[in-house]
Amino acid sequence: MTLMIEARGLTKRYGSKTALDGVDLNLAANGSIALVGPNGAGKTTLMSLICGYLHPTSGHLRVLGDAPGSPALLGRIGALPQDAQLDPGFGVGLQLAHFAALQGLDKPKQEARRVLELVQLAETYDSLPQALSHGMRKRVIIAQALIGQPELVLLDEPTAGLDPANARAVRELVNRLRGECRFIISSHNLEELQKMCDTVLHIDHGRISNQLTVDDAGQEGALTLTLAPGTEDQQSVLAQVTGVRQVTRRDREEYLIRYDLGGHPDFDLELLTALKAARIPYRRLALGLSLEERLFTPEQS
Ligand SMILES: Nc1ncnc2c1ncn2[C@@H]1O[C@H](COP(=O)(O)OP(=O)(O)OP(=O)(O)O)[C@@H](O)[C@H]1O
């Protein structure tokens, strides 16, 4: 089976600065990937290598089975670079059509309209970029990454600086297209990545420090409980529920509860029953750990 990304000892140095340090990866082509990690961890560098914008200093990299930048990958990868901008002098439809023509597509204007429709901005075809909001411009640039229906789309911080409505529009777009193409998305918003991606790669100091499958969250004997506002200080009540190993208060009314998974397969129902008996109202119960907990909080036994 052809892998989406295969890397061995992938290293990128900028002068004396090592941005990627011997990365090994085997990513199957059947899901979307989140890249997370602190500023300067190497996420953009990895994306640039995958796109073929940069060459590795050493190591081996294959994308969809071919070397980045090779003719075999032309038109198969789309990208939203981190600081991508539109040309202020031309209408957005014209710019997208121009890129479609550069890709050699037969009907560039039709393709420009298609991708604008995908990002729900069909009406902006004749608009100049400055007539659009920041969020709309970002969505237009995402539309550019979708020209030619690439198999793999890389989005570097697609929702950075967007208001909740525009960020949601981007999330919905990614989820709508997930059957048609694969995404690699870099973001600092873990909650958002959890809604869009299947696998999470945590990069730190140029190395992959953790790789998680989002769907595995329910297998960990943990859940997050949010009580109704004003229902504070219930830690001791929660700790007495049968099967509970540990209760940690995260926010005012939010608790992380670790429990004995083996002995209590229906622990969530048992917990709800206990809450009802103690007349403690709750707002939300989520099985598993949040991505933030899984990445940054060591397992406490
Ligand atoms: N062109 C360059 N010349 C020199 N150093 C660079 C260059 N590009 C990146 N770096 C350095 O390489 C490291 C990795 O940078 P990179 O942009 O890949 O990180 P990142 O994880 O994308 O960060 P952020 O979350 O801030 O976007 C950083 O220390 C950065 O300063």
Automatic annotation (TrEMBL):
One of its GO terms (molecular function) is ATP hydrolysis activity. SUPFAM superfamilies: P-loop containing nucleoside triphosphate hydrolases (SSF52540). InterPro entries: AAA+_ATPase (IPR003593), ABC_transporter-like_ATP-bd (IPR003439), ABC_transporter-like_CS (IPR017871), P-loop_NTPase (IPR027417). Residues 5-230 form the ABC transporter domain. Keywords: ATP-binding, Nucleotide-binding, Transport. PROSITE patterns: ABC_TRANSPORTER_1 (PS00211), ABC_TRANSPORTER_2 (PS50893). SMART domains: AAA (SM00382). Belongs to the ABC transporter superfamily. This is ABC transporter ATP-binding protein.
